[in-house]
């Protein structure tokens, strides 16, 4: 059964940036957009590239290797060469702290 796990203080991830984490044997990134905080897997479904080394573009993240893009809310592919989505995780902000739901 999953639970919310503390990742970091919200102030540690300024809007338009993201940060990589590994908690409970799960690698993911938390991105901060104008719409809030979102978490996705730190592995591109195209070739396993590190999503956390890419760029936040609005509500998307771009993989640094070949430019595949993913929706930060859902993990859905928004631009090739990737065709499969990446995992997304629920995020909550509580008392200025970020928590991510992990199994």
UniProtKB/TrEMBL annotation:
<keyword id="KW-0408">Iron</keyword>
<feature type="domain" description="Rieske">
    <location>
        <begin position="5"/>
        <end position="100"/>
    </location>
</feature>
<keyword id="KW-0479">Metal-binding</keyword>
<dbReference type="Pfam" id="PF00355">
    <property type="entry name" value="Rieske"/>
</dbReference>
<dbReference type="InterPro" id="IPR017941">
    <property type="entry name" value="Rieske_2Fe-2S"/>
</dbReference>
<dbReference type="GO" id="GO:0051213">
    <property type="term" value="F:dioxygenase activity"/>
</dbReference>
<dbReference type="InterPro" id="IPR036922">
    <property type="entry name" value="Rieske_2Fe-2S_sf"/>
</dbReference>
<keyword id="KW-0411">Iron-sulfur</keyword>
<keyword id="KW-0560">Oxidoreductase</keyword>
<dbReference type="GO" id="GO:0051537">
    <property type="term" value="F:2 iron, 2 sulfur cluster binding"/>
</dbReference>
<keyword id="KW-0001">2Fe-2S</keyword>
<dbReference type="GO" id="GO:0046872">
    <property type="term" value="F:metal ion binding"/>
</dbReference>
<keyword id="KW-0223">Dioxygenase</keyword>
<protein>
    <submittedName>
        <fullName>Biphenyl 2,3-dioxygenase</fullName>
    </submittedName>
</protein>
């Amino acid at each position: 059964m999953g639970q919310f796990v503390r990742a970091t203080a919200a102030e540690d991830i300024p809007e338009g940036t993201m940060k990589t984490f590994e908690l409970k044997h799960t690698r993911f990134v938390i991105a901060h957009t104008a719409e809030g905080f979102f978490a996705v897997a730190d592995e591109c479904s195209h070739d396993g590239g590190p999503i956390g080394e890419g760029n936040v573009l609005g509500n998307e993240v771009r993989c640094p290797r070949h430019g595949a893009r993913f929706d930060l809310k859902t993990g859905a592919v928004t631009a090739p060469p990737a065709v499969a989505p990446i995992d997304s995780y629920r995020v909550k902000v509580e008392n200025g702290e970020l928590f991510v739901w992990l199994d």
